[in-house]
Every structure is written in C-alpha cells, then in structure tokens.
Amino acid sequence: MTSDSTQTGTEELGRRPVDDATLALLLEVAGTPKPGNVDRNRDLADLRFETFLGGAVGAREGLELAAESDGAARIGRAFERAVAGMAARAGTNAQFGCLLLLAPLVRASVEAGPAGDGLSPERVERVTEATTVEDAVDFYRAFEHVGVAVEAPPPGAADLDVRRGSDAAPALRERGTTLRDVMALSADPASAADPDESGEATADDRVPDRNAREWVEGFPRTFRAAGWIGRDAGPLTDRAARAFLGLLAAGPDTLVATTHDPAVAREASERAAELLGGPDGRVEALSGVGAIDDAAVHEADLGAAEAVAADFVDAGINPGTTADITCAALYVALRRGAEVAP
User: Fold this and answer.
1) Strands (E), the chain
2) Could you give the CA distance from residue 278 to residue 192 in angstroms, rounded to a whole number?
3) Which residue of 110, 113, 119, 167 is most buried, as measured by CB atoms within 10 A?
4) Does the predicted TM-score (pTM) go above 0.70?
C-alpha cells in the first residue's frame, strides 16, 4: 500500500487531523464536570452548551486551512478563519483559545503523517518557530471577530495591544514581530510586570498566559495531559473531565486570573487538587504537570467535583484557559489512537 493510499484509508476511518480537531472541540465541551465551565450538564448565564457545538462546526473551514497538505496556508490565516467561522456560527467567543492551540497542532499533524505517532513537541515547535509577521497580523485580525478577555500589553508595547486588531499591523511589520514573538510577550510574566518608580520592570505575581506558554515551550501541558487521557479508561468525556482537573491543579488558570485576580486563580487550583488522587490526596496544588502522575488524575473524584462546579459557577470562576489545553490534549490523544467508546 502506498503512502497516498494509506492516507486515504486513514481518512475513510475518520482519522483526518481536521476530523480529530472537530471531535476534540466537541468532546471538550461534553466532558463533565469541569468546574466553572460550560459542559453537557450546565450552561453559564452568557454561554450555552449548544453555543460550543455551533462554534466547533463553524471553525472547521479554518482548521481545514491549517491541514492543507502543501503547507500553503499560513497558520495565522487558518486561525483567523477558524475564529471567524466560530463566531459566525456560535454568535460569540466560544473557543478562541482552543483554536489558537489546535491550529499549530493540526499543521504539525499533517507534517507528521497519517499515523499520528509522529506528532511530537519537537514537531509542533518547528511549526511555531516558522511563523511570520503576516501570521501575527492575521492573529490580531482575529480579535475583530470576538471579544476576548486579555491583559494590558507589556510596558513599551502599547502599539502591540491585541485589542487594536488590524490597526496594529503597521507596528507589527515595523518591528518584524512574528506570531511566535507575540506569544513570547504574553508567555513571560516578567514582561507584563508594572514598572517601579525607577522605570524598571518589577516582579509580581501575575499569572502568565498559559496558552502562549504552550506555543513557546513546545506544548508540555498539552502532551502531558494527552498522556493522562490516553492511558485512562472509560468514556473520553470522563477522561477529559479528569484531565481538566489535573491541569487546573497543576497551575493557575489565566482567564480566572484576568477576570478575578491571581489569588482567586490559585485558590481554584487548590480546590482542583483536593479532588485528585483518591482518598490518599497525593497531589500538591500548583506543582506543575510533571509532578502529577497518571494515578492521581485517573482517581479524580468526579462526584465531588460536582459541588466544586456549583461553587465556581456561583462565584463566576471560569477556568477557560484550562479548558483550552484540555481540548488540545484531547486532540493529541485522538491522533495517537484514543477512540470514542462504542
């Protein structure tokens, strides 16, 4: 069988990257309970379960651009088109962060080949390192389609405020700022520190943009959580919910820190850590994904998580960035052979 026919056979089995990306979007929102997030059992005041279903369908055209086998489509353009389609079908921002992570993962999958076993942090790293200034321009344009909760830009970078949308294009081109450069600005908490009286940046407790960190660090949380999912048992929606708790316990959520403050984000991680590891309680909050083993995640108490979910919704605590990484992890797990249970 030739490589071309192998690819065709894989597609006939529904294992194309774009199919797995769409399925990951659907499985992420269907997993429950994911405290503070929309899932199949709960809506939020301004977001409904069906909103995310519509967003997943609308994003497909952009994801198909990311999966073009000849690599002609820019990652930034694919992302911007996915966001536009999501917004048109969902009517709001449902999966902006998910799509930001999925676009380079889908591109890396195409370069890895149809089997899925070649998808690796190193391969995704090459994709993000190859992004251009025009990718950055497309990324900024995506902010014109939806409202996104973001921090103010670092000192000296007001002209790179993503909320400027296309108006930031001249500054991006003048500075030669690639999309990976943009992510690096958001990923480094020191770059977001307020200057002190001397004008120097000072360290503070701000939570970094964890989606941006995935981009510049080789997606370590994504691949770690994909391992949790792949080695877990039961329905993928339950595995996703347990992986979500593991990711939230490992580090504070960016969206929670942005909409509340870093202290609230860390308290949310502590609540998640209490749900891991079964009766032994082996998990230390905020310890990073590398410190959380499979057993701790696989023994997560989803029943007890229901009460935490209710508390988070009442308090308006929405760990959306953690949901984004959960979606990316589901995608990697699917590419590596995870299956929807019969």
Assistant:
1) none
2) 38
3) 119
4) yes
